[in-house]
Structure formats: C-alpha cells, structure tokens
Amino acid sequence: MSEYCYNVNDVNFENNLKDSFNKVFGGKKFIICCIGTDAVIGDCLGPMIGSRLKENIGGKSYIFGSVEAPIIAKDIKSLSEVLSLCFVNTPILAIDAAFGVAGELGHVKFCETPLKPGLGVNKDLPLIGTHSLIGILAKKGDDFLNSVRFSSVLPFVDKICRAIEGYFFENSDLSINNTDFSDFSLNFDNLPFNLLKNAN
User: Fold this and answer.
1) In angstroms, rounded to a whole number, what is the distance separating the alpha carbons of residues 17 and 9?
2) Is 199's pLDDT higher than 70?
3) What does DSSP assign to residue 171?
4) Which of 28, 76, 111, 194 counts the most CB atoms within 10 A of its CB?
5) Domains in the chain: how many in total?
6) What is the CATH number for 184?
7) Is residue 33 in some structural domain?
8) Containing domain of residue 171, as a range?
C-alpha cells in the first residue's frame, strides 16, 4: 500500500496532495471522517477541517465530524459500524492529528490504509476508514495539551482543505445525489440518529 508524505510548508503541498488523491481515488467520490475535538488545541485539526469542508463541498460527499459535532474516542466504535453498514465499496478518508518523530513534524501523511486513532494517547480504538490522512503536529513524547499552538494548526487546516476542495471541484460531477456511482451504497435506516443528522 502506498504512503505519501508532504511538508505542509512546501509551496507545492496542495497540488501534490491533490494529485495523490487523483492517483489513489481516480476521480471518484470518497467519504470524509474528521476525528478529534476542539477542546484540545492539538486535537482540533480534524473537526476544523470537517467544519470548513461542510461549508465548501457540502453536497459533494458525506462529511462526518466537525467543530459543532466532533467525533471523539467514545464515538469511534459506533461510527465504524455505521460506515461498514452504509458505505460499501466506497473509499473512506479518515483525518486526524498525530505525533511523529522530530523529522516528521510539520508533515502530512496520506496512506492507503485505515486510521488507527488514539495511538498517541495510548488508547486502543477500532480502525476507521479505508484510507488515512494525518497531520503531524507534535513530537512523540510531547503533550498535545501544552505543546501545540493554535497558530501552528491553521496552515494544516487551510492547505489540507484546499487540496480536498481542489479534488472535488476538479472532478465537478461528484455529488451525493449522483446515481452514476454504482459502488456507493447507503442505507439510512441503519444510521444512528446522532451521526446521521451531522453528516452532509
């Protein structure tokens, strides 16, 4: 499985990440799950991305997780069950903040493997998604509560969102109402209400 790693300060970051999406997803729709909470600065990457994407590409995909409706540890199991029931053979991109070694700080990793949330805080949580995107905001051994500044999160949010938005607008026929995507299977009867009402 491929892994793509880009420095968020690289001038070509947005185009490189968007090109990776095109290479992996082939112009098809993917579901977006944004993990984390704005209650902790170091963990607010996911929900901030979710809120912006809901404003800018709402209607083009389902987006779970936002500042207004965060997905935290206790939600992971339910959300994993929802995704397995409702989205069959559809790529699911899970987004989260992460720790890394010193040389990885400031990088974004996009992988063709599920996300394992909670590793940095020693929580054993279920895998989620088919693909993962992590923003490395702190070094291993640091404390998300004290080591991450809000100003350092903002470039990650802006540039990751620009890459995702660019992908969806470049592939302009993508829509949650587009019946051309035969691999997109959604059964709303199986969705827990609290997750259903907060997804676009």
Assistant:
1) 12
2) no
3) T
4) 76
5) 1
6) 3.40.50
7) yes
8) 3-194
